[in-house]
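Single Protein Entry

Contents — chain, fold
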Amino acid sequence: MAAAKEKIKTTKKSENYKIEGNKLTRTTKFCPRCGDGIFMAKHNDRYNCGKCGYTEFITKK
């Protein structure tokens, strides 16, 4: 029998924004290569674009 496929976690677009008073703010970054509208995934030590593969590492202070 075939092995069971793992479910891939997807985020809703509403999770990428937050409402503060009358303002709508982004909670995640846009990819600098792909442009506005393409969000980068936040991992423990980096931001990563799933479309082009661009990665920014988070430096600890």
About this structure: DSSP finds no helices and seven strands in the chain. Residues 24-61 form one domain.
